[in-house]
Amino acid sequence: MITHITWHTNGCGTQVAWIKADAKAILAIHEHVITNNGRLSVTHNDYNTWTLVIRSVKMEDRGVYMCQVNTDPMKMQTAFLEVVIPPDIVYEETSGDMMVPEGGSAKLVCKARGYPKPKIIWRREDGREIIARNGTHGKMKATVVEGEMLSLTKVTRSEMGAYMCIASNGVPPSVSKRMKLQVHFHPLIQVPNQLVGAPLGTDVTLICNVEASPKAINYWQRENGEMIISNERYSMNENESSMYAVQMTLVIRKLHKADMGGYKCISKNSIGDAEGTIRLYEMELQKKTKTAHRLNSVEDTSNDEINSTPNVDQPEETNKIHKNGRLYKGLQGSEHDLISSSGATGIVVSAHRGGFGLFQSMPRHLHHRPHQSSTGWSGEAKLLIVLLVHLRQLLARWLLRLVRLTRRKVLQATMAIQFQHPTPSPCSSPILLHSSL
């Protein structure tokens, strides 16, 4: 860097001297440099313009400079040279990458030189908050922390990552140092679905979520200890969601009967190991029976009207119930209702937590339906037996309520009579009043 200090004079034949005021040292007279400093020189552009040139400016060049002219009286002018130095990281005094166990403490140090003295701030490279803990103020979160030292206590895995130390003093450019904090802990496995069902011949995916640091070795096993190898039927993948989190997936294609059973996802690192278990079972596809087909044909009728017998536990008539594409009027339905029906007679029983309801469907196109075979009535007989059992339970509850209500009414009537006509006390006697004229 080169600095120029220029002075303009008005006289001819005068001598100009340059002096470092704080050191009281003469630097140059006219165009002749006196001091033993090769970085200094004096230029004279015309008869009244003089310039002191300082090359490769150093911090020691900072101070007051004086220009004197040997006139009578003597003339002089002063100028202050301020030297600024951009920030620079002192690497030998600055922390590097660090590893701590989970729950431990870490101290990151950043030193910088420059003039004016640089200010140091800390940020996380991913923009997340820095968590600072102390005994008096508890836990504090901030995106920017100021100071040469960043102290982290009770470090968790979420604090793992890169931290940036940035030094600036107003003189460009600012400088930074990247430090990576590694938090070590034993593997942890979470299984979203421990029980998975799928039909034979289909593809199924098993999932395990793993957290581990340092990076773990992950693999799959059958429950008998047989290790699973990738081939045309088994496909294994790992998807990283963070520095320490991985999702393990096992895809089994064209399920066989022999594929059913237990599967283990296992994760191991230098600190420990963990495993999760998933059980795969066969899910049978529902087959349409003759009765189900007949029921569907009845339920697809658009203008059927259904009369309902109200439930004693829930006597009010509520909104319509939609079940299997059919519209039912009657008791309140919910996701826990179980509606069964007979396609031959149109009788529907709705069982739920509050009781049951009886529905009778009378589609117009079934009014003259031919007589069903004996095999068709066997299911209706079972349905009627269930209905009678429910009716008996309903009648018993209704009678019990009636008895309780009757007792309550009798008790209330008795208390009302006693209040209106109190029984005279046996110890009392009539009082006679006499009056005389």
Automatic annotation (TrEMBL):
<keyword id="KW-1015">Disulfide bond</keyword>
<protein>
    <submittedName>
        <fullName>Lachesin</fullName>
    </submittedName>
</protein>
<dbReference type="GO" id="GO:0005886">
    <property type="term" value="C:plasma membrane"/>
</dbReference>
<feature type="domain" description="Ig-like">
    <location>
        <begin position="87"/>
        <end position="176"/>
    </location>
</feature>
<dbReference type="InterPro" id="IPR003599">
    <property type="entry name" value="Ig_sub"/>
</dbReference>
<keyword id="KW-0677">Repeat</keyword>
<dbReference type="InterPro" id="IPR051170">
    <property type="entry name" value="Neural/epithelial_adhesion"/>
</dbReference>
<feature type="domain" description="Ig-like">
    <location>
        <begin position="187"/>
        <end position="279"/>
    </location>
</feature>
<dbReference type="Pfam" id="PF13927">
    <property type="entry name" value="Ig_3"/>
</dbReference>
<keyword id="KW-0732">Signal</keyword>
<dbReference type="Pfam" id="PF07679">
    <property type="entry name" value="I-set"/>
</dbReference>
<keyword id="KW-0393">Immunoglobulin domain</keyword>
<dbReference type="InterPro" id="IPR013098">
    <property type="entry name" value="Ig_I-set"/>
</dbReference>
<dbReference type="GO" id="GO:0043005">
    <property type="term" value="C:neuron projection"/>
</dbReference>
<dbReference type="InterPro" id="IPR036179">
    <property type="entry name" value="Ig-like_dom_sf"/>
</dbReference>
<keyword id="KW-0325">Glycoprotein</keyword>
<dbReference type="InterPro" id="IPR003598">
    <property type="entry name" value="Ig_sub2"/>
</dbReference>
<dbReference type="InterPro" id="IPR007110">
    <property type="entry name" value="Ig-like_dom"/>
</dbReference>
<keyword id="KW-0472">Membrane</keyword>
<dbReference type="InterPro" id="IPR013151">
    <property type="entry name" value="Immunoglobulin_dom"/>
</dbReference>
<keyword id="KW-1003">Cell membrane</keyword>
<feature type="domain" description="Ig-like">
    <location>
        <begin position="1"/>
        <end position="77"/>
    </location>
</feature>
<dbReference type="Pfam" id="PF00047">
    <property type="entry name" value="ig"/>
</dbReference>
<dbReference type="InterPro" id="IPR013783">
    <property type="entry name" value="Ig-like_fold"/>
</dbReference>
